[in-house]
Amino acid sequence: MVQETSLSTNDFIFPLFIIEGQNQRTEISSMPGIYRYTVDMLLEEIASCVELGIKAFAPFPNIPEPLKDKYATESHNSEGLYAGAIREIKKNFPEVVLMTDVAMDPYSSDGHDGIVENGQILNDETLEVLGKMALVQARAGADIVGPSDMMDGRVGHIRRVLDENGFTKVGIMSYTAKYASAFYGPFRDALDSAPKMGDKKTYQMNPANSREALIEAELDTAEGADFLMVKPALAYLDIIKLLRDNAHLPIAAYNISGEYAMVKAAAQKGWIDGEKAMLETLTSIKRAGADIILSYFAKEFAQYLKK
Ligand code: PBG
Hints:
The protein has about 300 residues and is an alpha/beta fold. The protein has helices at about 40-50, 80-90, 125-140, 155-165, 185-190, 210-225, 235-245, 255-270, 275-290, 300-305, and strands at about 10-20, 25, 35-40, 55-60, 95-100, 115, 120, 145, 170-180, 225-230, 250-255, 290-295. The longest helix is centred in the middle third of the chain and has 18 residues, at about 125-140. Ligand PBG binds near residues 103 and 188.
């Protein structure tokens, strides 16, 4: 009666990884229990999640190295792996919410979220690519696009491109306060995408800053975001609370790959109780003020509830 915070499957978006081919799934070694799926097997995985009550998914593509280039051309190929997967998922599960990823890194030969020239990220030139990418995803059936790139001005640019093409109903979940984090490691393994040179510190946020998150939130709100996201979640619970207290849009938090990996690794060693640590972790994110949680634990949590 007096418990203030409770979790339900409605709170979650489940990230998924897609690979080319057929009838295959490969486990990500740094993320036990999480797989990259070919589209046919991904549909089975989504079916089993839907059965458990999960209603929203965030797929990410693993693009073969030969298809990557400096300008992430493959990112706006309407016949490519990602657009094809989105169409296929939407055809089979029209009722699920699909949030697609807008960023260059899965398709970039430089492994960066923006165009790299002479060691610098070209912010405004990158917006063009992001706009094209978002449009291809909207045409394929995305309900929400999620720019995870951290270029300045991308929410406004994507909103304009979508509206001009009639996709006024496609929402934008902005990765508003995305910090340059060591905890992204396992995700970069999953996608085989990491910066070939330098790091992402010129566009992702400094972990030492919190007021800057408010600036990002104001900009994203003004540019037309429908949701604001904080990422990672656990080392940034104060930022989730800060945005919750200062913004009026729904707040999402991304319980990222490294946060998942730490719980799994310690549990495998028998050093902590994995299930209890999962529940405590997810509860802390909701308690901090997240309305929506992106987590690799989504399915396991739904299974726990059923049990
Ligand atoms: C990049 C992107 C990253 C994640 C989602 N999109 C990592 C990065 O910025 O290098 C991380 C998600 C996770 O770690 O679970 N656009």
